[in-house]
Design goal:
heterodimer; A: 290 residues; alpha/beta; seven-stranded mixed β-sheet; B: alpha/beta; five-stranded parallel β-sheet; 20 helices
Chain lengths: 290, 496
């Protein structure tokens, strides 16, 4: 059954969001879960994307993605009315939500997308929610309004100071950890390197920290093990044991290397696609005659 | 033997048979008929099927080797009790249609089973001819004959008859061999059957696991098409336990009975240092990328990448290990090592697969096993450190226990390691189905009718047996379907 794109919007230079028809997923999904999609044929790449939101009544889910390779670029080139052939999910274990007291939610770049439903659920469960969201620059910052609505306190940072505070997210995070009373729980989602350094901060202060990992996957049901990470010295599968883990136990360095497994392949495929879209006139900046 | 000589021999034998003079001694003298195969050098570079199938004469000669034993020990070796001696007699007579009809009484997927059943430990193990020569490989080639008649039928579009609709709904979870049989058998009884498949494509292990060169995808697709034509509904991208639970399917979607055939699931890793380095794959992942996603065509018509390795080690001695090693060869690896901690005799792989692997240049490192995986500064695999093993007393599996030899460490340079040492049970159904009973390994507990601890819920295949085969899964699918049909008939009576 194909999945129609109901609406699509560009959030920043390389970040996009779309509402996609997937009534069963919309009904079943919980914060922290994700879907695997493939776009246009049975041999198209299967990629995991977090469910940023869902509307059970309309039978739709909301995805947010960053254009980083062929599949995400292809998806960015699709529009309302187009169809995606495969959407499967919801996958992964839902986030464990309870009233921890004060929680810090840290989102970096596209990590804001999966963080939003978790922060929302934490707020609904009665937590005091302090959110830190960061991006490289103003252009790449997404979902600020949404986080403003649900956060008791919101701190925005950019690496270059083009918006909000000029800092990495670890800086305000450390300050929060030094407050008395210190936060009871942290949730960190973003680039692997960011999660690594955030976890180093919270570990110093003994604040339990959940991270949500987005690794390379094929089936998403535990069958292939391609998504495995080292947690506390043991192999764990992100798709069935995660995607959330105790951030203080994750081997982020190895995870980053594994994420780069197909870097060359991905680059080649992306270049090919860019050339192709240029030829067919999708890319007006590269081929002004069109 | 040339084809001409084969024809002459067959004619002589048939004449003798007609006169009633054909003795077992004459049958023993017929040379075992080999199945034509692609040349090993040539097939290293393509994914086409290795064995190309018997000619009519080859098949009839092979069939003439069957002694037609009164007690038919072969049937006792067959998990689904096909009337083997009868279908072989039909082939010998040249009545191939009759041969196939006899097989189909018991087996739905002869073109599949003829290819992937481990006949040498089933029907062919108990074959009198093989016993006479004290060599299972000299038994009547029952599997090849099954494949022969099944392949002749590939263009046949007839579909099994379906009785009047009962209005009872059956959910089949998983579209592998067990699910296909369970769906067909319950549909034939007139039930409204839906198959739920987690992947975007149907066929289960026959599509993601077993490579094209051993089981062409078109054959599996044909079986799926038959189901569709029978009126079985197929829903892909649906993960029971996540998209909807079994309880929801039964209570909210009105399914009266459920068959769980979800397969094995989680690949086992070894728990050794370095097993998450870049370049270490589970066999499941390696094969899924290559088979289901056609990673070998990456950049041309497909999008899923796979590492193009130069030196590959595969750990394990089963069919999946052979499939992985032979896939690595086809993906262009210059050296492929098969590392196994027992001796070749203990290998669970089919003899034919071992033979094909060796022909294709795979180097066997027996009585060895990796101790750790070594990587470079980028965490890419560069080598494995192995230990040598010797065999001790038999363990609970009946095979001699491998014992590591202390201080025997040595290094094999590789850039990819594929781990093919089996699967643990997938926890998805267990986590999401309270009330269903599991054993300590996480496999579903069933009775002799494949009925689980939950009313109306049946299960079979790997999720019940641990590691099974296509034919065992099919066998359980059939047993479960019979029990489900009975259960549904009862249920309908009380409902009406």
């Amino acid at each position: 059954m194909p999945h129609r794109i109901v609406s699509k919007r560009q959030l920043s230079k390389d970040v996009f969001t779309a509402e996609i028809e997937a009534p069963l997923v919309a009904q079943a999904r919980k914060p922290g879960q994700f879907v695997i999609i493939s776009i246009n044929n049975e041999y198209a790449e299967r990629i995991p994307l977090t469910i940023a939101d869902a509307d059970e009544q309309r039978g739709t889910i909301r995805l947010i993605w960053q254009r980083v390779g062929k599949t995400t670029a292809e998806l960015a080139d699709m529009n309302a009315g187009d169809e995606i052939i495969n959407v499967v999910g919801p996958l992964g274990k839902p986030t464990h939500i309870e009233n921890f007291g004060t929680v810090v939610c840290v989102g970096g770049g596209i990590g804001n997308a999966p963080l939003l439903p978790i922060a929302k659920a934490l707020k609904e469960a009665g937590n005091k929610v302090i959110t830190i969201i960061g991006a490289r620059n103003k252009e790449l910052l997404v979902l600020e309004d949404e986080f403003t609505q649900i956060s008791d306190e919101l701190i925005v940072t950019t690496d270059d100071g083009s918006y909000g505070r000029k800092a990495l997210v670890t800086e305000p995070l450390k300050e929060l950890c030094q407050r008395e009373p210190k936060p009871d729980q942290a949730f960190v989602i973003g680039p692997t390197i960011m999660m690594k350094f955030c976890c180093e901060v919270t570990k110093q202060f003994g604040i339990p920290t959940q991270v949500s990992l987005n690794t390379i996957m094929v089936d998403g049901t535990g069958m292939c093990g391609g998504c495995r990470v080292e947690v506390d010295g043991q192999s764990k599968f992100v798709c069935v044991d995660g995607p959330e883990f105790d951030g203080h136990k994750v081997n982020f360095d190895l995870m980053m290397k594994r994420l780069d497994t197909y870097k060359d392949h991905e680059q080649k495929a992306y270049e090919q696609y860019k050339k192709h879209r240029c030829k067919i006139g999708l890319d007006k900046t590269r081929n002004p005659k069109q | 033997m040339t084809e001409e000589e084969r024809k002459q021999l067959l004619q002589q034998l048939l004449d003798k048979h007609k006169r009633g003079e054909l003795k077992p001694a004459d049958r023993y003298k017929i040379p075992p008929q080999n199945m034509p195969e692609q040349d090993p050098i040539k097939r290293r570079t393509n994914v086409n099927e290795v064995a190309t199938g018997y000619t009519e004469t080859g098949a009839r000669l092979e069939a003439m080797r069957c002694l037609q034993c009164k007690n038919a020990p072969c049937i006792k070796g067959c998990p689904v009790q096909i009337r083997i001696q009868d279908f072989i007699a039909a082939i010998a007579e040249g009545d191939f249609k009759k041969g196939l009809a006899i097989i189909k009484e018991n087996s739905l997927l002869p073109a599949v089973c003829g290819r992937v059943c481990p006949q040498e430990v089933q029907c062919q193990q108990t074959c009198t001819v093989g016993l006479k020569f004290k060599d299972a490989t000299k038994a009547v080639s029952i599997g090849r004959l099954e494949r022969f008649v099944a392949d002749l039928d590939q263009n046949n579009d007839s579909i099994p008859a379906v009785v009047r609709e009962t209005g009872m709904k059956v959910a089949v979870i998983g579209s592998g061999p067990g699910g296909i049989v369970a769906a067909a058998d319950t549909r034939r009884a007139g039930h409204d059957v839906t198959i739920f498949e987690a992947f975007h494509k149907t066929g289960g292990v026959m599509v993601y696991g077993i490579p094209e060169f051993r089981l062409p995808k078109a054959i599996v697709q044909k079986e799926i098409d038959v189901l569709s034509k029978m009126g079985v509904k197929i829903v892909c991208n649906f993960i029971v336990g996540r998209t909807r639970t079994i309880e929801q399917l039964m209570k909210e979607n009105g399914f009266d009975a459920v068959y769980i055939g979800v397969g094995a699931g989680l690949p086992r890793f070894m728990g050794i240092e370095g097993e998450s380095l870049v370049g270490v794959y589970s066999a499941n992942e390696y094969l899924t990328r290559s088979n289901l996603m056609k990673a070998y065509d990456f950049g041309k018509s497909t999008d899923t990448p796979i590492l193009r390795s130069k030196k590959v080690a595969v750990v394990g001695g089963g069919n999946v290990a052979m499939d992985s090693a032979r896939t690595a060869v086809r993906l262009g690896a210059e050296k492929v090592y098969l590392v196994y901690r027992r001796s070749e005799k203990e290998m669970p792989a089919r003899i034919e697969e071992v033979h094909h692997a060796k022909e294709e240049g795979i180097e066997f490192h027996i009585l060895q096993s990796p101790k750790r995986v070594i990587g470079d500064e980028n965490s890419h695999v560069t080598a494995i450190e192995c230990l040598k093993y010797e065999l001790g007393e038999p363990d609970e599996s009946g095979r001699r226990r491998p014992i590591p030899i202390e201080g025997s460490e040595f290094i094999i340079d590789v850039d990819t390691l594929i781990i093919a040492i089996g699967n643990a049970a997938n926890p998805l159904i267990r986590q999401t189905t309270p009330g269903l009973e599991f054993n300590k390994w996480g496999n579903i507990v069933v009775d002799e009718n494949c009925k689980t601890s939950m009313e109306g819920v049946y299960a079979g295949g790997d999720i019940v047996l641990g590691a099974a085969t296509v034919i065992l899964a099919m066998g359980q699918g059939r047993i479960a379907a019979a029990a489900m049909n009975e259960y549904l008939a009862e249920k309908k009576k009380t409902r009406d």
